[in-house]
Structure formats: structure tokens, C-alpha cells
């Protein structure tokens, strides 16, 4: 990056902003790379840290940079694109974009379900739901935390190895079941301590919450899921 032109009418912070943007778009600073610190940029450009901060703030608003508390400022990684119409598993989404899907199972258990879930599944109060909780990865980077509920007849899932395996593939290949359509509720939430730990983000980091109700090829509501997605790693289309 060139030194600033103090004779230009363009403010110094804007010159730095444009220089950093050019470095990002040209690949000099590739996605995921940490950029120089505010002190380094201030020294290199012979400008104040206030000027540097204004340039970084502008690029952060443009989603070209991502600030991670306690770690620094990084070039935003390419977002995964997910359609909100139709049904595509996370694994299919990753593979369609040349990424390597992954999963780590946190729990696979029988648990009491909420009244709402019991009613949707037609369960009695005494019955317990099958509950799966997994961290989903793309190229080893945690992207979402998903919790999935199934009615008791899906007890076979307790014994399935779902680490780095697609749940959809297991259901289709071994149990001749797949999902035909779904309804979704989407909202912005913030990571609590546990979720932040699982996803490698700061506490109170904004997340996209997606609650889905899935209908299978037998026309039954057989799956209810809740995903917490790191919003700066996924783009949605409708």
C-alpha cells in the first residue's frame, strides 16, 4: 500500500480505507487473514489511530473485515450461500461449494420434549423425544450449532455415528426416509456463553436463529430443528 497523499482533498482515513479495500479485493489480504494492527497501520501510514479506526470501521460495515474480540481484525471469509426455499442438507451445501463438511456430536439422547414439540409429533406426555445436538463445520471452521428433535420411533438414530456424517444421508440410505418440505422461522439472536464456546465466537456475538419443521416423504412431521448460525459465514437466498 502506498503512503497517503497529504496534498489530496480526500481525507486520510478514506485513502487508507480505499488502499485496504484494494489489498483485500486483489488477494493481497486473502479471506481469513489477519490484517496489520491499528498500531502497525498508524506507524506505516504516519497517521493517528483515530484515522486508522475510522477506516477499519468503514470496512467492517461493508462486511469486508471482521473484528474478533481479543484476537484482532480479519478479512471476512467467503460466505456460504443457502437457499431458504427447498431442502438441502448442510453437507450438500458445503459440497456444492467445494467445501468439506464436518460434524461433531455433542449429545444423542432421549429427553422430555416441550409441550409444543409433543403436540406437533403427537406424543404423549410420558414419551421422550430423540434429541441430537451437533456442531457443524465447513473446512474445519464451526459454522452452526444445531439441535434436532425426532419422535420416539426414531430411536435408531441414538446408535448412529453422526460425527462427520450427514443426518439426511443416514435417513435416506438406511431408512428410506427424506424430507419433502419445511417451514422456517428466522430471527437474530445473540450467543450465550456455551454457544459462543462451541462456535468459537465472542459472547453476545450476533447469530441467525433458524427454527424448522420438516415434513417427510410419508407426509408426517418427523423432525423439528433449531440452528444457530454464525451470520458472517452464511448468506441466505429466497
UniProtKB/TrEMBL annotation:
CDD domains in alphabetical order: WHTH_GntR
Among InterPro entries, the record links this protein to: Bact_HTH_transcr_reg, Chorismate_lyase_/UTRA_dom_sf, Tscrpt_reg_HTH_GntR, UTRA, WH-like_DNA-bd_sf, WH_DNA-bd_sf
Start and end of every HTH gntR-type domain? 10-78
Recorded hits in Gene3D superfamilies, A to Z, give: Chorismate lyase-like, Winged helix-like DNA-binding domain superfamily/Winged helix DNA-binding domain
- Please name one Pfam family that this protein belongs to: GntR
What are the alphabetically sorted keywords of the record? DNA-binding, Transcription, Transcription regulation
Q: Does the keyword Nucleotidyltransferase apply?
A: no
Q: Is DNA-binding one of the keywords UniProt gives this record?
A: yes
The record's section on PANTHER family has: MANNOSYL-D-GLYCERATE TRANSPORT/METABOLISM SYSTEM REPRESSOR MNGR-RELATED, MANNOSYL-D-GLYCERATE TRANSPORT_METABOLISM SYSTEM REPRESSOR MNGR-RELATED
Name of this protein: GntR family transcriptional regulator
Biological source species? Symbiopectobacterium purcellii
Amino acid at each position: 500500500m502506498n503512503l497517503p497523499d497529504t496534498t489530496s482533498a480526500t481525507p486520510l482515513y478514506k485513502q487508507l480505507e480505499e488502499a485496504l479495500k484494494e489489498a483485500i479485493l486483489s488477494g493481497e489480504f486473502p479471506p481469513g487473514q489477519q490484517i496489520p494492527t491499528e498500531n502497525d497501520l498508524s506507524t506505516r501510514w504516519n497517521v493517528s489511530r483515530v484515522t486508522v479506526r475510522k477506516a477499519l470501521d468503514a470496512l467492517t460495515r461493508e462486511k469486508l473485515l471482521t473484528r474478533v474480540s481479543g484476537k484482532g481484525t480479519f478479512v471476512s471469509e467467503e460466505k456460504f450461500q443457502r437457499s431458504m426455499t427447498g431442502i438441502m442438507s448442510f453437507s450438500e451445501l458445503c459440497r456444492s461449494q467445494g467445501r468439506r463438511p464436518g460434524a461433531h456430536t455433542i449429545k444423542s439422547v432421549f429427553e422430555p420434549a416441550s409441550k409444543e414439540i409433543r403436540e406437533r409429533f403427537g406424543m404423549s406426555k410420558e414419551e421422550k423425544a430423540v434429541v441430537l445436538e451437533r456442531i457443524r463445520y465447513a473446512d474445519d471452521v464451526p459454522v452452526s450449532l444445531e439441535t434436532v428433535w425426532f419422535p420416539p420411533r426414531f430411536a435408531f438414530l441414538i446408535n448412529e455415528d453422526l460425527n462427520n456424517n450427514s443426518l439426511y444421508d443416514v435417513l435416506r440410505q438406511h431408512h428410506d426416509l427424506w424430507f419433502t418440505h419445511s417451514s422456517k422461522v428466522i430471527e437474530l439472536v445473540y450467543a450465550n456463553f456455551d454457544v459462543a464456546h462451541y462456535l468459537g465466537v465472542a459472547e453476545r456475538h450476533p447469530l441467525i436463529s433458524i427454527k424448522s419443521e420438516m415434513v417427510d416423504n410419508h407426509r408426517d412431521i418427523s423432525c423439528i430443528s433449531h440452528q444457530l448460525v454464525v451470520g458472517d459465514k452464511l448468506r441466505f437466498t429466497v
